[in-house]
Amino acid sequence: YKLFMIAVKKIETPIVLFGVIFTILFSYIAYSTIGLRHFLVFAIGIGLGFTLYKAAFGFTGGWRNFIEKRDSSALRAQFLMLALAAIVFSFVIGSKSFVYDGTIVGAIAPVSLSVVIGSFMFGLAMQLGGGCGSGTLFTAGSGNTKMVITLFFFIIGSVAGTYHFTFWSSLPSLGGISLLDNYTLVETLTFQLGLITILYLIVFILDKKKNKITDHNNIFRFASSNLLRGPWPLFLGSVLLVLLNFLMLHAAGHPWSVTFSFGLWGAKLATLIGVDVSSWDYWQLSYPAVALENSLLADPTTVSNLGIILGALIASALSGNFSNQIKIDKKLFLAAMIGGFFMGYGARLAFGCNIGALFSGIASGSMHGWVWFLFAFMGSYFGVKARKFFY
Fold it and tell me: Which of 14, 33, 309, 378 counts the highest number of beta carbons within 10 A?
């Protein structure tokens, strides 16, 4: 999908004012009822949403462009983001937060058959749904009707994934493998940066062969001198996302994640209509049980996701592109429904999406992040092929 038009459009002032007023009100509520940490998490979410929209930083379209056209620009920007994050995170995980008296933990999850199946499912489904975890949020926030439908079924799929959590958890697993726990800092960075460099060079060479590109400038080039209204280069998006994820480490105590809150939202709604989700094994685990019992505002992932939606809303209105409506026919609705549901289900199996598992996982030195990337990309290949039946 293309978020920006070449011509500069008129700022949609009423939408901007709505976004700013709601941001101020929610910031006050977060600070007064929960505290400084959640206020900061919300502010970081605003920055994430603004950055994702302005840099058009989506995994789904970027992967599809490479699969179909060998256009590697988005992939190369993502590899640069992962390299920078791996360096920054390696020095701070396990240290004390500067926001509260606690230790920062990484996004470590098991290397398991569940992750293999879930990530493949997620990669395929995100090509049908038209957005990944973060992509669904920021495009829905910018007024994209189809992505609102995708988000709704994403939530349903997430709840279904928690219902079947016990079965998937029983599949063969090597357990959580943290490179930082098993190897030295130098060894971990050598492996991570070496692998990222190899992947970067491979996609660049394939792009160069197919599209005759001669340099790397397309991810650094500014299309507009107006940073507030114009689009941002992919590289700037990469740097800012790493910076904001670093701040999230200190504010939340853990890296940026997206999809846990989707399951929580769905579980809360299911409870309202009489479904006893608290009896499910997943919602009896320590953290999910506390989150289910508490207010939604007590969940940092929920707070940051609301910030992402608002940040994208404000950014799109400033660019004059809010309410980029897409006519929904039966095929697009079906694609959004199937894609959203299986993204939610797959993310639960795989312990995260492109953010919680791939970005934050690899940055934290978790091997499950690399497994997620491999099988999600394979799933995306087949998802791109399946798109022709819906689009």
Answer: 309
The pTM assigned to this predicted structure is 0.92
pLDDT lower than 50: segments of the chain: 1-7
Tokens of 288: 């999910």
Residue 137: CB atoms within 10 A of its CB come to 30
Report the pLDDT value the prediction gives residue 11, as an integer from 0 to 100. 84
CA dist., res. 22 & res. 317, Å (int): 14
Instruction: For residue 360, count CB atoms less than 10 angstroms from its CB and return exposed for 0-12, middle for 13-18, buried for 19 or more.
Output: buried
Q: Which residues contact 83 (CB under 8 A, 6 or more apart)?
A: 192, 193, 196, 197
| Residue 169 CB neighbours (<10 A) | 14
CA neighbor of 55 nearest in space, from 246, 258, 259, 311? 311
Tokens representing 148 are 């609102």
What token pair was written down for 132?
């990944």
Structure tokens at 229: 């209204």
Return the pLDDT at 178: 96
From CA 141, how far away is CA 144, in angstroms rounded?
A: 7
- Residues facing residue 110 across a β-bridge: 176
Tens of pLDDT, residue by residue over 17-55, are 999 999 999 999 989 988 898 999 999 999 999 999 999
b/e code 58-73 from CB counts within 10 Å (16+ = b):
bbbbbbbbbbeebbbb
The identity of residue 34, as a single letter, is: I
Res 171: pLDDT: 96
CB 341 within 8 A of CB 156: yes
Tell me the C-alpha distance between 363 and 200, whole Å.
16
Residue 300 near residue 310 (C-beta atoms within 8 A): no
129: nearest Cα among 278, 371, 345, 337: 337
Which residues contact residue 18 at a Cβ distance below 8 angstroms, ignoring those fewer than 6 apart? Answer: 313
